[in-house]
Design goal:
Blueprint (H helix, E strand, L loop, with lengths): L14 H34 L5 H33 L1 H21 L3 H4 L2 H31 L5 H5 L5 H17 L3 H8 L1 H18 L6 H8 L7 H8 L1 H10 L1 H20 L5 H28 L3 H23 L4 H29 L5 H18 L1 H12 L3 H20 L9 H9 L9
Helix pairs in contact: 1-2, 1-3, 1-5, 1-7, 1-9, 1-13, 2-3, 2-5, 2-17, 2-18, 3-5, 3-9, 5-17, 7-14, 12-17, 12-19, 13-14, 13-16, 13-17, 13-18, 13-19, 14-16, 15-16, 15-19, 16-17, 18-19
Amino acid sequence: MEQVTGERIAPQTSARRVALACLMGTSLELYDFYIYGTAAALVFGPLFFPEFSPLAGTLAAFATFGVAFIARPLGAVIFGQLGDRIGRKALLILSLLVMGISTFLVGLLPGYAVIGVAAPIILVVLRFLQGIGLGGEWGGAVVMASEYAPPNKRGFYASFPQLGPMIGLLLSGGIFLLVAGLPDEQFNAWGWRVPFLISILLVAVGLFVRAKIAETPVFQRVVETHSEARVPVVELFRTYPKTLLLASVGCSIQFVYFYLVAAFAPAYGTAQLGLSRTTMLYCVMVSAVFIGLGSILFATISDRWLGRRTLVVLGTAYLGLLAFPFFWLTDTGNPVLVAVALSLGMFGIGICYGPLAAYFSEIFGTRVRYSGTGLAFALGGVLGGAFTPIVAQALFASTGASWSVSLYVVAMAIVSLACNLLLPKGRRDLAFDEVEGRGAGRDAVGQRT
């Protein structure tokens, strides 16, 4: 049984400062990640797959978008293995570098017309590296914020990295709006590259902030007692196999909705509803505010009133019920109603997403916490995010109606709901050493204490 004291050691850095540093890092990394999704919806089809039809080109662009999700579990394993062995801080700096450099290089990449088939191949490689970086980012950020937070405010402080999607979407959407007003010829030639190139400046700021925070007291105690897991990933699969599986599938519905809004909706709105790309970007940006509001609100509620698993279950049910109304509103083609539909979806994600960081941190022990939280979230991204834009596009193409996409969303919500109901409750009232002293050092699925 692992015994790790954590919150009882005087921290070298305040919980608030750590939370803000984690927020800045996830915001910048998710900005890098999302500008790719926007570019895939708006320009990558004709630029990198010009020999395809418009529909096939969009599908191919979304396929490259999905490559990063395949890479995310690998990134979670690599960074989790190192983060549970040598510490959280160094790996968070490395993940930011991997994401930032690969994103910057996408902005320099010539199109198919210049270097031929090498262009989409290099694009896929750079997207894969983006996935590696993001796979290491989320687990490390939420673990660091959680391990610094006092137990009675763990949900609140751990939700700061969860605001990354809101800030990342607002940044990426805002910068794309600045260049979206260019004539199509200029936008396709160089305008789309601007958001990728300026990302290197944002990454430099993130590195500066993260370099000033200290390692978590919880992990410092692990090092002092020489209780690190020899091979964290192996120990994770040995001690938490059911928790890992259920957590991965349980969070997948959040990715389904997020990438319906952030990736599929811009392409759907411009191609099928006749809305301008500027209008769709505004709609996505408005909706981004609601994932942030939902996340911070329900993370705080999880500290005071309802439990974290309860909120995740309620949020998952809400997202399943929203599947058909989401497209009823969107299909009106009215920009206001489209924004309402996207915002309802993002707010529903926030119900689950806000408490999720602290919840995942509580159901995995310190020796494998970085690996467990990161890998569960990354696998959820593969199941829910990697294929949602391309599946939604293919379903609509085959049926000509949005109800088929709604059915897909309902099916994913039902599966996620079943898994979330089988997960153990979090331990919001206990310090991490007390959590681990009461059973978090083994697979706790089925415990209802």
